[in-house]
Amino acid sequence: MKETKGGTRTDRFSKSPSADSGPLVLDIDDFKGDFSFDALFGNLVNELLPSYLEDDTDATDGPGASDAMANGHLRTPSDSGKLAQGLSSPLFPEVDALLSLFKNSCKQLTDLRKQIDGKLYDLKKEVAAQDSKHRKTLAELEKGVDGLFDSFARLDSRISSVGQTAAKIGDHLQSADAQRETASQTIDLIKYLMEFNSSPGDLMELSPLFSDDSRVAEAAAIAQKLRSFAEDDIGRQGITSSVVGNATASRGLEVAVANLQEYCNELENRLLARFDAASQKRELSTMAECAKILSQFNRGTSAMQHYVGLRPMFDLEVMNEDARLVLGDPGSQPSPSNVARGLSSLYKEITDTVRKEAATITAVFPSPNDVMSILVQRVLEDRVPKLLDKLLVKPSLLNPPPMEEGGLILYLRMLAVAYEKTQDLAKDLSGVGCGDLDVEGLTESLFLPHKDIYIEYEQASLRQLYKSKMEELRAESQQSSESTGTIGRSKGASISSSQQQISVTVVTEFVRWNEEAISRATLFSSQPATLAANVRAVFTCLLDQVSLYITEGLERARDSLTEAASLRERFVLGTSVSRRVAAAAASAAEAAAAAGESSFRSFMVAVQRCGSSVAIVQQYFANSISRLLLPVDGAHAASCEEMASAMSSAEGAAYKGLQQCIETVMAEVERLLSAEQKATDYRSPDDGIAPDHRPTNACTRVVAYLSRVLESAFTALEGLNKQAFLTELGNRLHKVLLNHWQKFTFNPSGGLRLKRDITEYGEFVRSFNAPTVDEKFELLGIMANVFIVAPESLSTLFEGTPSIRKDAQRFIQLRDDYKSAKLAAKLSSLWPSSS
């Protein structure tokens, strides 16, 4: 079936003349392309169903169309007539024709399938034959390709062999060409060598090459080759002559060597002159060309040194200006701060100049690092040392400059400033570039003459500073004494003036000197062991200074105590003197007592300041010295031992002085007791008056004196020193009171007053915080009861404290009824062991 132009498909099968009953013929083409069973079926049945379809269409479109199909069936207008007619005729008359058509179509489809199966079978056979033929062809092609690959391999091997042969031929040709070139150059060199070896000093007959300014580079290279060859030949001849004797030695190339040396010198001078002219005009290209040629002469060393030597920064006027900038005007005293500023400015100028020269050197010389090395070396070996020689004039240790001219400390400060600033210069120059030059080592070598004996100058400077300070303090003390006048000691003046006292400010100044010295030692000492040794030496100076200063201060304070003691002894009188003499002696004793009290206070102030000074040194050691000594084994421990040893002399002076203080206090206590204690204080008359329960006047005076004088001791002393001093003082007071009371007799009311005095003393010494002293005064209070109780009660009084019976017996003997009550006999019977 085919489509017409109107879009309908035409029948593609043929029929018989009778359209209604002719057989249907199906074509294979009907199944090609986009085959659709629905379309095939429709084409088969459309010719048999058109009349039915038209009748159906007319029935639906007629006058009774409004009576549409009810329940899916088409109804006619006339129910009875039409229904009867329908029952008499068949509903689908084309069914027979369709069945016949379908049977015919099935048969034809079966035939068509058989035809196609036959064609498929024929095609399979044809394909199998073609495939067999194709496989055979491929096998033949594979054999051909394998042969072709073998041919290509043989061809590649041949090409490789030919290439290697060609390369060998090329090498031989290149070698031959090089040999030819070498031979040609050798011929020329021999010709030139013969020219130089013709006659001594004759350079006029040389080839034009050696006089042509445009071929200077070539001439220089050839001259260097000839010179090297001639010198080697002379060396070989010398060895040969020494072996076979001078008789067989032939004429050598000595003339050539001499002429070549002369020519090279002349050529080098010409190039240097051209280099200088170009340098003045700043023609860098010409300078670079000359430098490149000159590099063939001693690797260009002469050109490098010539260039560096002509730099303006090394002119004598410039170096003199350096000294003026740093040191100031001639005759003026330079200060370290001004020198530091001057060096910073000068070294910055040098660094900037070297940096500018580095740009020119890089553009001109083929080996700029070598030139920079020479330039920086010249700076550190010429310009800087000349300045340092004027700046660092090493003073004499035997006759050091006086402090008015700066002393040794000025030299050390200048040395530290110069060293530090020069180190900074070296770092800056290394940053600019200096080739392989050891800038750090070169800089260190500038200061080796100073660093080798630096520590000796440091120690001498510290000693000079100490000596100057002591002279200053003595001068101030003398001036103060002269301005205020000498105060009469008979009026109770202080024997030691305030200017002679130990000053913490002075010790702080010692430490400040030492800190400055330690900072220099750290600057100059790079190795830990060297640093530790220098630090120990410097710190030992501080220990010696502080030890000597505080020891002398304590000794001066002790001298005042000794003088006060001599004053006391001077006015000790016998018993048989006149009343007038006794009054004068009492007045003088009061003055001596005032001097002793003042000396006591002065010594306590000295002890307090001594302790503060030692604490400052210990704190300084812990904060600044320890960390520098710890890296070296044994250094820290040794320094601690030195510190303890240095302070031992001061400790000895302080101990002796404290003993003298106790003696001074006890002497005044004895004087007060002797002057103020009356016999009636402890032996009141039995006149019926109520007993006096107040402390005696002597007790009051003694306690008042002790409270007043020991106030400075409580402030000055601390820790174990304070405890030991107060304990010793309490024991001595206990002993003095016992001896003092042995001079009196006591009645019961006097015993009560004694007990009141003992209580007063006990309350005072309780402030000492000394348990042993408190215990002794408590026992004194117990023993005082022997004056209060009746004689018959004495036997039971010390039952709980048998340890004090011996002292109690001495007290009992002081009772006013000791003899009348016959207490000696009673005590012998009660305490036979104590008789």
Can you describe this structure?
- InterPro entries: Sec10-like, Sec10_HB, Sec10_N.
- It comes from Sesamum indicum (Oriental sesame).
- Belongs to the SEC10 family.
- It holds the Pfam family Sec10_N.
- With about 850 residues, the chain is an all-alpha fold.
- Among the domains are: about 100-190; about 310-465, no CATH class; about 500-675; about 680-835, Methane Monooxygenase Hydroxylase, Chain G, domain 1 (Up-down Bundle).
- Helix content is about 70%, strand content about 0%.
- It contains 24 helices and 2 strands.
- Helix 6 (about 255-280) packs antiparallel against helix 7, helix 11 packs parallel to helix 13 (about 440-450) and helix 15 (about 505-525) runs antiparallel to helix 16.
- The longest helix is centred in the N-terminal third of the chain and has 102 residues, at about 95-195.
- It starts with a strand and ends in a 5-residue tail after the last helix.
- Residues about 1-20, about 60-85, about 245-250 and about 485-500 have low confidence and may be disordered.
What share of residues is helical? over 70%
Low-confidence stretches: 1-21, 62-87, 243-250, 486-499
Rounded to the nearest angstrom, the distance between the terminal CA atoms is 173 Å
SS-based class? mainly alpha
Major sheet: size, sense and barrel closure? 2 strands, antiparallel
Helix tally equals 24
| Percent of residues in beta strands | under 5%
Shape: flat
Q: What Rg do the Cα atoms give?
A: 67 Å
What's the number of extended β-strand segments? Answer: 2
Order of helices and strands: EEHHHHHHHHHHHHHHHHHHHHHHHH
Largest beta sheet: strand ordering: 1-2
> What is the average of the pLDDT values?
79
